[in-house]
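Write out structure tokens for Replication protein.
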Amino acid sequence: MHFSTINLLRACNSCERIWQKKRTGKTGTFKKAILFAKQLLLFIFPIVKIKARPNIKTRGIIMFTIANTKTKIKWREKHLDNIEMASKMFSVGLEVRAARMYNCGAQIEVERCEHCGQVIFKKAKLCRDRLCPTCSWRLSIKRFAEMMAVFNSIFTEHSGLKATLLTLTVKNVPIGDLRITCNQMSEAWKRLSQSKAFRSKVKGYARSLEITINKKTTQAHPHLHILIVWGRDENCDDFREKMRKMWKRSTQINYDPVIDVRDAYANEEAESPAKIALEALKYAVKPKDFEEIPLKDFFEFAGQIKGLRFISYGGLISETRKELRFIDDDQPSEEIREIVIDDNACNHHWVKALAIWSNVKRDYVGVGLDGETDTDIN
């Protein structure tokens, strides 16, 4: 995004804050005009500058169409969601985070076959913001793939184990109390998971914090999804009641919390229960939850979740992750692992190129170098 655009948007935000301080009645025409001007600036100005540094052999830059594969369609959908979310961030004065989100996934490294035109997506620059739709999607893919690999390893070596999904909740809280509530839940989980009663049964766990928003009350609902690995003969009903008492004691709450326990995975069972359980570990925050909430609540929420730790591992699951050399950074991967469909009629002469987001087309367009494979495009 151009530097001048950011300055103009900051000026709009400053005018809006001054107007809000002076005016105590209903929203006036002046404020509506400011909001309209901000939206217009975001729509008009281009997001990405295309920089090409061809070597001496290059004949020139070419544009090409990228076919509507499932991968491209998904990237387009998420980037359109990015634009909406970034616009909301600009509206509440979070210009720097919004600018990064606008450019998240706007330039993707691809490889293109010069013969058949097939394009595969290779790598994208991501903003890693918790509220970014693209980053949330990429992180969910990474979490899912890693947990499937961990489960396959564990249940291959330990046939007497199974996985169970445990959900721990507390009552809804105002968004202003969200951060302190999440920290208290984290400490409560630490006490529970280190207790003798828990460690005597559970061999390993993956804990994920998820936060949803009640659109009617705009209150936050933080809850923990925990995938536990334990003995195949363990009973879920008995464990549920024990966990209810232990979670109530650990959180020091004065009401009976809602606890859910259900078997998720065993090496001889169908694949679908595993996928259902792994869905619980995919999304920490669903960006769609914030489409209709007031801007003041959105601004508060964006600040409350910043820096929170959303996932952790323990026991056998943590050990297996180390063996598989997975990094516990809980960040989306910029590498894109797309399956290449081999075509017998084409030998696939791949050349490097870029998929660039176009504001005009509201879609990705291909940008490459004509006739050369040893290129340097940035």
